Amino acid sequence: MKTAGDILAALFDEGFVKKAQGYNNLFDSWEDITAKNGITAASAHSRIKDLSKGILLVEIDHPGWKQIIQTKQSQILSDFQRRFPDMDISAISLMLGTPPKEPIPEIKLKVTPPVTQKPAIDETVISSIEDIKDEELKAILLRLGKTIEENESPRR
Predict the structure, then answer these.
(1) Which residues contact 62 (CB under 8 A, 6 or more apart)?
(2) Is 103 exposed, middle or buried (0-12, 13-18, 19+ CB in 10 A)?
């Protein structure tokens, strides 16, 4: 059985896979960076929602947590800029959101580094994103591609 990393490597080039790993690391770093800034509990009430045109969008479930995060916002921004210099993060925007009624399952894709020789992949199984049967995975991959494309467009 092929791993998600094998499928991604077959669908996307090495540069795309590296960017996807970078975004995965960015989203996974929220808990660590809030802890480093002394507001560990805030990570349970907030999450990185998006990175668009250099602005890191953080969704928070209560105004009180928004105020707490605002007290450390400049330090958090500095930490993200140091940790992810290639992403050109210039600002953090905090927005209130409604907490999910049910926990949203966390989806983690393990991306394996590309191999020097072409992996043996049955081209008839996955030749394009349309061949992916799992609609949720397909939607996630399409959103990821759109986000990366938007972040690569020239800034105005």
Answers:
(1) 45, 96
(2) exposed
CB 66 within 8 A of CB 94: yes
Mean pLDDT per 10-residue interval, the chain, length 156 residues = 68 70 89 95 92 94 93 96 93 84 62 59 57 79 79 62
- Count Cβ neighbours within 10 Å for each residue of 113-144 and write b for 16 or more, e otherwise: ebeeeeeeeeeeebeeeeebeeeeeeeebeeb
Three-state DSSP class for residue 22: helix
Residue 11 confidence (pLDDT): 65
Listed in sequence order, the residues at least 6 apart from 8 whose beta carbon sits closer than 8 Å to its beta carbon are: 17, 20, 109, 111, 141
Domain ranges for the chain: 4-99+113-152
Record the pTM: 0.56
CATH of domain 4-99+113-152: 3.30.300.180
